[in-house]
Amino acid sequence: MSILSICQWLQNESIGTSIRESLWTFPIIETVHLLALAFSVGIIVLVDLRLTGFAMKEQPVTEVFGRLQPMALKGFAINVVSGVLLFWSEPLKCYNSPYFRAKLIMLFVLGVNALLFSAKTYKSVASWDKAAVTPVPARMAGWVSLVFWAGVIIMGRAIAYVSS
Ligand code: HEM
């Protein structure tokens, strides 16, 4: 079964169709998607600014992470659930959208970046926890995150302008 045929099946499936055909459901889910973005990307950006040395330089990295990460994860979970529902309502439009594909690739890169950071770089945080200037791999992870999250938002916005 190809991805296209799965999208064709989803397009005619009842949940997606009811979201698409209702006057309010799609805008409400999209509003939730955008509000959750403030809690996911908005908070992740603060952590990235600490890693790249632009903000909260006097705060230990572990404290910034400890306070902000739980909220960011909840926001991200709402983003994924609302994003999947939006996708469900317009799978063929998304399939045909280069912006949607780019957005998924960027989300994948962000996932790999976060995994590498927590599995390798963050393991040694005790030795640079209070440093204003973090080690190069930590700064790199912060920059990759800032650039690719900006990309995800730009691509997300651009999906609306390509019709299937
Ligand atoms: C944290 C992760 C995400 C961020 C930051 C994000 C960001 C955005 C933004 C800024 C928009 C534009 C809203 C507007 O037009 O006003 C959008 C729309 C959308 N997103 Fe996401 N998104 C995320 C995750 C996802 C996921 C995981 C999916 C699907 C699997 C998804 C699917 C969609 C769809 C289908 C739209 C609607 C496009 C349209 O207007 O036709 N998003 N997203």
Summarize the structure.
The chain has seven helices and no strands. It has one domain.
Features:
164 residues, mainly alpha, 7 helices, binds protoporphyrin IX containing FE
Please identify the structural class as seen in this structure.
mainly alpha
Count up the domains: 1
* Separation of the first and last Cα atoms: 21 Å
Bound small molecules, which ones? protoporphyrin IX containing FE
Helix/strand order, N-terminal first: HHHHHHH
Tell me the number of strands: 0
Helix content: over 70%
What overall geometry do the principal axes of the alpha carbons give? elongated
The largest sheet is:
none
Strand content: under 5%
- What gyration radius follows from the Cα positions, in whole Å? 18 Å
Protein model, in words:
- This protein has 7 helices and no strands.
- It has 164 residues and is mainly alpha-helical.
- The protein has one domain.
- The longest helix is centred in the middle third of the chain and has 29 residues, at 61-89.
- The protein starts with a helix and ends in a 5-residue tail after the last helix.
- 22% of the residues are buried.
- The structure holds protoporphyrin IX containing FE (HEM).
- Protoporphyrin IX containing FE binds next to helix 3, helix 4 and helix 7.
